[in-house]
Design brief:
GO molecular function, one term: hydrolase activity
Strand order of the largest sheet: 8-9-10-11-19-15-14-13-17
Oligomer: single chain
Organism: Pedobacter fastidiosus
Mean pLDDT: 96
Subunit structure: Monomer.
Number of helices: 18
Pfam families: Glyco_hydro_92, Glyco_hydro_92N
Keywords: Calcium, Hydrolase, Signal
Length: 761
């Protein structure tokens, strides 16, 4: 009897194991690290609080009191084009167009101790080292590189809250590990507010660092443990002379002193090493306290088995990657699974293992029944990343909305997040797009909290009159050009957000709110100039601004874009926009012109986030505002043009190379666009349960949904030439329109595309 039970169990186990594919092999974190992608190649786990990755330079945010434009290239700390590494730090943004972080930089060295980082042209003048991509390995959850100047091999892996280092040293009695507490990304003299370190014993230290800047009250606590006792240690302070320092001068604090504090500090730890000896470090983070950091470390990595931690990290990634199993070419698999990897990096976990986190009110809170998240780059990610989570990560999406509600409850301004970052809102970019994420999650059945309370938070945020022109928008129906340099894009984005609020109100049968916000959602019409057919800045007196160029991205009333792209930003009402622009035929020709025109460099020369690599005609794919545009042909009775453009964008803007992204990945938005589009459908207007169809680039895809069901996408006669769709079947029934619903996905089933080399007109 026992044997009869065991054998079926073993068989089921074997079948389950065979269903799990080795998909980690297709993830190439190096994609996007060259040119504009702004991704990092280091080690992290899905939605992890630690992002342990190399830095390749030490540029300051300012030079001579002015913004240093070159620092923009280092938003992720690492630039593929560089030849030197300055160290390995524990916090990074993935793919952003602005930056912070780079906390707690560690660098192993040997020989004469040097505490300055040196320069790229003379790495031996400091602690940095030259390196070669030939001796570099970047995988999901693992990074390895040889530091040529000191003949040290560095390896990195991580858990959710702990980074683990493994450094293989040569034989030396002058081996060092440097902890640079001044280093950071987007750094400047006043960046570090205060630093504290306590040396507990000869293998353990704890402390914290508070920084100013994008997150102006950001404090990160840490615990650092060595696998081997250090023989000596010390610090160097670079603090400016203070008028009063108390009586700490009675001690020699520079060598073997157990408690240090200041603004600008660097520490070093000395070791004797044998040839090939490995020194390991566990470095845990906490937003709450040193004790919590230590608890995080002891809970997540109890021993010193680096290979075990690496294997756990990669197994975690493999489980997440297997949520979608595709059949396609090898290059397409690399692009797809790297996109899936990048999409599952952010938002990041912002709770300790005991559930605690620091809130916007600077108080310690406990997440009750959910994981609290931060790093919400909402201007980017509301478009496709969060809708993607509602399909493939609904439980996490639920927690993310709860995190936004906690943010609202703790906000002194009683606003939902704009760009949430480590118990701060850095207020970056336009719109109040958390309302889109919340509405989309509730409408699609993802959020299990109080929907009416969530709607109230959306309303309060949308009526915050003194935030970025909302008062003018409410009173006039647009934001006057005299009052804002991004008046048009703000009006357009507020209009869409208001539509999302209206959809939520309608679902909850709060029709007074629906009526108010559906009216507000039509405010985009106030910036549309019928005489020229473009969105245009409007003055307070109701007239349009005279000096205007629809191609220019500078001074025309738009943020990171021009009127040619933003004039199509009415994702919530394409039919009304089409009518406004003269009907379906004229609208389609307008789209044709956008994709085929030439946009000279002069028109985006002053916009960091737009470069030639991300442009097709005049369409800017390398930045987010136009991401829905190729799908608008579906509303013109010419869906074959959507199909052709989608495949063109997929092939041109995504490649399995270091420079394979045509623009900032922006916390996964570029990657989410790729995955949706390669699967054949896209959420043009989050807050709606409808997806527009395109042209899948996969041969087959199985979406393993959290509810236990599967949704399969099949592309018959798929090829590089067969980019057009002759017909689409949903569960065997032919579709009459190029749209499907969210319930079609979550109920499970099969979507079959029949591909052709010629369009079906």
């Amino acid at each position: 009897m026992i044997k009869r039970i065991i054998l079926p169990c073993l068989l089921l186990s074997a079948l389950a194991a065979s269903a799990q594919q080795n998909l980690v092999q297709y993830v190439k974190p190096i994609i996007g690290t060259e040119k504009m992608g702004h991704t990092y190649p280091g080690a992290t786990v899905p939605f992890g609080a630690v992002q342990l990755s190399p830095e390749t330079d030490t540029l300051s945010y300012e030079v001579g009191g002015k913004y240093n434009g070159d620092v923009y290239k280092y938003c992720a700390g690492y630039k593929y084009e560089d030849k030197t590494i300055t160290g390995f730090s524990h916090t990074h943004f993935s793919g952003t167009g602005h930056s912070d972080l780079g906390d707690f930089l560690i660098m192993p060295t040997q020989g004469k101790l040097q505490l300055n980082p040196g320069t790229a042209s003379n790495p031996k003048g400091g602690y940095r080292s030259s390196f070669s991509h030939a001796n570099e390995v970047a995988e999901a959850g693992y990074y390895k590189v040889k530091l040529d100047d000191d003949n040290i091999t560095a390896e990195l892996t991580s858990t959710t809250r702990v980074g683990m280092h493994q450094y293989t040293f040569p034989k030396s009695d002058q081996s060092h590990i440097i902890l640079d507490l001044m280093a950071g990304i987007y750094n400047y003299d006043e960046k570090t507010v205060w630093t504290y370190v306590r040396v507990v014993n000869d293998t353990l230290l704890t402390g914290y660092r508070q920084t100013n800047g994008w997150g102006r009250t950001r404090t990160v606590y840490f615990a650092m443990s060595f696998s081997k006792p250090f023989k000596s240690y010390g610090r160097k302070s670079y603090d400016a002379k203070q008028a009063y320092r108390g009586f700490w001068g009675k001690f020699n604090q520079d060598q073997n002193f157990p408690e240090i504090a200041g603004k600008k500090l660097k520490m070093y730890f000395d070791f004797d090493t044998q040839e090939g000896e490995k020194i390991k470090i566990k470095f845990a983070l906490s937003p709450v306290s040193q004790d919590n950091a230590l608890q995080n470390m002891r809970t997540e990595i109890s021993g010193w088995d680096f290979e075990k931690v690496k294997a756990q990290a990669q197994a975690t990634w493999n489980k997440e990657l297997n949520k979608i199993q595709i059949t396609s070419s090898n290059d397409n698999k690399i692009n797809f699974y790297t996109a899936l990897y990048h999409a599952f990096i952010n938002p990041t976990t912002y709770t300790d293992v005991n559930g605690e986190y620091k809130g916007l009110d600077q108080g310690v809170h406990k997440a009750d029944g959910f994981t609290n998240y931060t790093t919400f780059s909402l201007w980017d990610t509301y478009r496709a990343l969060h809708p993607f989570f509602n399909i493939m990560q609904p439980s996490r999406s639920n927690d993310m909305v709860k995190s936004m509600m906690a943010h609202y409850d703790q906000s002194s301004l009683h606003m939902l997040p704009i760009w949430s970052h480590y118990a701060n809102d850095n207020w970056c970019m336009s719109g109040y797009h958390s309302v889109s994420v919340i509405s989309d999650a509730i409408i699609k059945g993802t959020y299990n909290g109080d929907p009416n309370k969530a709607l109230d938070a959306c309303i309060a945020t949308a009526k915050h009159r003194d935030y970025e022109g909302i008062g003018y928008y409410m009173d006039l129906g647009y934001i006057p050009a005299e009052k804002s340099g991004v008046s048009v894009s703000n009006t357009l984005e507020y209009s869409y957000d208001d539509w999302a609020i209206a959809q939520l109100a309608k679902k909850l049968n709060r029709m007074d709110v629906y009526d108010e916000f559906i009216k507000r959602s039509g405010n985009w019409k106030n910036n549309y100039d019928k005489s020229i057919g473009f969105m245009r800045p409007k003055l307070a007196d109701g007239t349009f601004k005279k000096a205007f160029d629809a191609k220019d991205t500078e001074g025309q009333g738009f943020i990171e874009g021009n009127s040619w792209n933003y004039s199509f930003f009415v994702p919530h009402d394409p039919a009304a926009l089409i009518e406004m622009m003269g009907g379906k035929a004229k609208f389609a020709k307008r789209l044709d012109t956008l994709f085929t025109m030439h946009l000279p460099d002069e028109f985006f020369a002053h916009t960091e986030d737009i470069t030639r690599e991300g442009i097709i005609g005049g369409y800017v794919h390398g930045n987010e505002p136009a991401h829905h545009i190729a799908y608008l042909y579906n509303w013109t009775d010419q869906p074959w043009k959507t199909q052709a453009q989608i495949r063109h964008i997929l092939n041109m803007q995504y490649k399995p190379t270091a420079d394979g992204l045509g623009g900032n990945d922006d916390c996964g938005q570029m990657s989410a666009w790729y995955m949706f589009s390669s699967l054949g459908f896209y959420p043009v207007s989050p807050g709606s349960d409808v997806y527009a169809l395109g042209s899948p680039s996969v041969n087959n895809a199985v979406l393993n949904l959290e509810n236990g069901k599967t949704f399969t996408v099949e592309a018959i006669k798929q090829s590089d030439k067969n980019v057009y769709v002759s017909k689409v079947l949903l569960n065997g029934k032919e579709l009459s329109t190029p749209f499907i619903k969210h319930s079609d996905l979550t109920n499970g089933g099969k979507l079959t595309f029949y591909m052709s080399s010629s369009p079906k007109k």
